[in-house]
Design brief:
Chain A has helices spanning 2-29, 34-42, 47-57, 63-76, 89-93, 97-124, 129-143, 146-161, 174-208, 211-218, 223-260, 266-275, 279-307, 309-314. Chain A is mainly alpha-helical. Chain A folds into 2 domains: 23-78, no CATH class; 97-307, Orthogonal Bundle (MetI-like fold). The longest helix of chain A is centred in the C-terminal third of the chain and has 38 residues, at 223-260. The mean pLDDT of chain A is 88. Chain B is of the alpha+beta class. Among the domains of chain B are: 62-189, Dipeptide-binding Protein, domain 1 (Alpha-Beta Complex); 278-499, Dipeptide-binding Protein, domain 3 (Roll). Chain B is 32% helix and 21% strand. Chain B has 16 helices and 18 strands. In chain B, the strands form 5 sheets. A 6-stranded mixed beta sheet of chain B has the order 12-16-11-15-13-14. In chain B, strand 13, helix 12 (383-396) and strand 14 form a beta-alpha-beta unit. The model of chain B is unreliable at 15-23 (pLDDT under 50). Classes of the chains: A mainly alpha, B alpha+beta. At the A-B interface, helix 2, helix 3, helix 8 and helix 12 of A face helix 5, helix 6 and helix 13 of B.
Amino acid sequence: MFAYLVRRLFLMLVTLFGISVVIFFLLRIVPGNIVDILFAAAGYVDPADKANLEKELGIDQPLIVQYWHWIIGFLRGDFGYSYVSEKPALQEILPRIPITARLAGLALLFSASIGIPLGVISAVKQGTKLDYTLRVISLSGLSLPSFWLGLLILTASVAMFGQMPIFNPNPKTWLEAFATYAVPAAAVGFRSAALTMRITRSSMLEVLRQDYIRTARAKGASDAAVNYHHALKNAILPVITVIGIEAAFLIGGLIVTETVFNIPGVARFLVEAIRWRDYPIVQNLVMFIAVVVVFANFTVDMLYAVFDPRIRYTD
Amino acid sequence: MRSVRALAATAVLSLLAFSTIAFAGAPKQGGILRMYHRDSPGNASIHEGATYSLNVPFMPVFNNLVIYKQDEAQNRMDNIIPELAESWAWVNDNKTLTFKLRQGVKWHDGKPFTSADVKCTFDMLMGKSQQKFRQNPRKTWYEQVNDISTNGDFEVSFNLKRPQPSLLALLASGYTPVYPCHVSPGDMRTHPIGTGPFKFVEFKANESIKLTRNTDYWREGRPYLDGIEFTIIPNRSTAILAFVAGKFDMTFPTEVSIPLLKDVKSQAPNAVCVVEPNNVATNIIVNSSAPPFDNIDIRRAMALALDRKAFISIMFEGQGDVGGTMLPPPNGLWGMPKEMLETIPGYGPDVNANREEAKKLMQKAGYGPDKHLAVKVSTRNIPVYRDPAVILIDQLKSIYIDGELDVVETANWFSKIARKDYMLGLNLTGNAVDDPDQSFYENYSCGSERNYTNYCNKEIEKLFDVQSQETDIAKRKKLVWDIDKKLQEDVARPIIFHARTGSCWQPYVKGVTIMSNSSYNGYRYEDVWMDK
């Protein structure tokens, strides 16, 4: 077990090192840097001012030196300063993480709580009007871009209620806070819910044809018991896998949703930071996400090894 | 007796009625003005920026020596009023501009304002001080200033190399606040300290900017508002919807396009909206140092092919202005009169005739129906740049020029232009001050960093100096018209149109004035109040 843990730990460190190299050099391959952008915005360039600014920000140094400074700082917990706001990078990143985490969590919850039951209903009522209606809804969910859906929701809210579910940074009640996140979460989670529904439906249809389902019915089990206790329990595994994959894809949807609903989360912030070539923000933020994902995988691997001894011997 | 009582009652009623009217119109104290902001400015230092995204939220933090009257739409020399200065005088054959300064003014951190602060600010702008701005985009404004001298704590003089009456206009711009000596340029980027009607509270990048009332403001009874809050909403649809839903008291100034304005008026019929020119000219930059545009015939043909009214009709539903470099009248002070404008090739009303002439020039240069000229039209990847570039490509087709759109990200735009890696470019040029000195020297003088096309005509440059020193407005205007005409005839940087844009606010917001010949100077907000 110890050898397995050391091997996994080593692999994790190698992965993180690889990610750090890729992030760092990919950012530098993109044409233009913060100094170019600042001078482009000012519509002029003074070579001396430009050189001074590059020196001040340390981007005049060889890439390898810049990488070394960043990675040593990262390991020491010194994340540097945002080139744009000139505030500590951590101070800029940390307050935005909970906002996006709440939004993503709620979107996933929406996806599962809507997608799974509707998928089961669609499978059980296969070939009925209800099934067709649900399939059309799921298809539209997959086809509607989330930015368009978001704008549609905003326009409809203003036209119908004269109100707008735009982000409220200081909600006074729990309900207000929930409302702040619920609408954008629904907008971004609608696509995931549609996908979850389709996967649940097809997985359920496969399971419902199995012999043990017929046996359960023959034994006189109720429809609810058969569908939810016997069938769904066995059909849920591919659904969970898809929800897991969707969680990773969600970040893409969140960028658009955070923009449309003006939510100051980490996804929109990341895009803005890339636009400004704000290296300290982008590098540290992506690295932070990478560390979380790699650690989560590492923990899961360890748990597998704990529960299934074959893994630690064979891997 | 009865008649006396009746008369008294009438008098009392009249008094009541008048006082009610008077009170209804009198400004009220209090309230937070909520406005959305179109994007997140890079920092909070006006002197280091070149976008009005900075002026709008941060101009209320500062004062200038002098300023354009904030309740008049047109910026003119005769509506410049003292601010941190109490008075000014031109002396020494108009080569010295002396200001008497206001006493008892305090910076927001409590320190006293003196002439040393003025000297510090302008020494930094001229690049003469130890402390330096990271960027100094308006250094060229002060090229005629030799030095700044002080006489005690409350008198300061600008000593010029030669007379330059327009210096006062430059000093009245929103781009010319006085900075405190005791705060470093770095701190001014993150936490600006001013003497203005509002104090800086916080700036959260991509989120919000908050200002609060300066209770120690030197102007008695101002500002009326308790504060101003800007929510940064880059998505224009979201921002407009939020305004319609009443989440904001005001749109970002001059940011409502003409088609969107119709939406706002239909969904919020009570909103007050105005449309004004913003003194931003959409123009073509031509790389005349390389083929094919080193050929003056091809440049002239291109200028002749432009149907400026079509641009305005497509993009602004007819609400735009055709002009030369200077903003056309009546809003612009220095633009050529219509009759003069129409004598310039390409400005005549008969577009077909112009294009026939253009075709002849193209044929002379070796192009025709069987041999088209292929060019790339480069522009920034922003709708206000991209949309006219597409129309331009369409119009150039009529004279055997096949344009291909080359969309460039902002980060790479300026470096591309600077290294002359373009054939044609679609560009926008904003003028902070409606004055020829700012426009001519910045955009057309030999060696200017903003002279993207490297147009250089020493004869014209001499005329720039002549008009700059002319104190007689009528004479100066005539000189400016001649220069502008020559610039257009030389196809130095053909101007396509001058845009107009809208601004809206809720009916209870009072005291807002949108400037009609600059979008950089009208955001002090000390006269704005809310009737609710």
